[in-house]
TrEMBL record:
PANTHER family: BIFUNCTIONAL TH2 PROTEIN, SI:CH1073-67J19.1-RELATED. It is an enzyme of class 3 (hydrolase). This is Aminopyrimidine aminohydrolase. Keywords: Hydrolase, Thiamine biosynthesis. Pfam families: TENA_THI-4. It comes from the Bacteria. InterPro entries: Haem_Oase-like_multi-hlx, Thiaminase-2/PQQC, Thiaminase_II, Thiamine_Salvage_TenA. It catalyses: 4-amino-5-aminomethyl-2-methylpyrimidine + H2O = 4-amino-5-hydroxymethyl-2-methylpyrimidine + NH4(+); thiamine + H2O = 5-(2-hydroxyethyl)-4-methylthiazole + 4-amino-5-hydroxymethyl-2-methylpyrimidine + H(+). Pathway: Cofactor biosynthesis; thiamine diphosphate biosynthesis.
Amino acid sequence: MSLLERLKQAAAADWNAYVDHAFVRGLGDGSLPADCFRHYLVQDYLFLIQFARAHALAACKSRSLSDMRAAKDGLAAIVDVEMHLHLRLCERWGLSAADVEATPEHAATVAYTRWVLDIGMSGDLLDLQVALTPCTLGYAEIGRRLAPAGATALAPDHPYREWIAEYAGDAFQAVAAGANAWLDDLDRRYGSQARFPELVAIFAKAARLEAGFWQMGLDAR
Ligand SMILES: Cc1ncc(CN)c(N)n1
């Protein structure tokens, strides 16, 4: 069984509370209030800036070029692809990149991102990748859940079609598959039975911080 599957099993309650959060259900059926989505998306842009730093830290922690390339793929997926979605949507709301970057970070954004950076600073590459896993692999799972037949099957006037299409789409799914394969590779090299409980604790905390991030969006109502 992959490390992801074992972590999900061991932290099932925290994982399910994250991937099946009311915010996610509202995205799926289109009932999420627009203000909540907007608040979330602006904070998510700030979140991604810090997560890009965490992927850069993974490159710094890498002892091989192959690990460095895998870390670079995660960084590029954020700064060259994912953040463009945010800027496209923000532009439609009359917000420039400078406006978004000038927005103060919410406590939930600070809590999650700085904790991941701290795990990366104090732990090894496996600890850091486990802390990053709910981010990439969680959104890939959510994308598949919200568009089981692919994003083209969503109603053309679905208010969150573009967001869902980003995470259900082939490009994001391929990044997630690469991250999952890298996680198993790191586990083979650095993991052990003795380390597993500590990895579960990191994974579960990241899943709870993800759920807290959704809740921050909902609380904007
Ligand atoms: C909070 C959060 N978690 C994960 C992702 C997917 N990169 C995201 N954009 N934002």
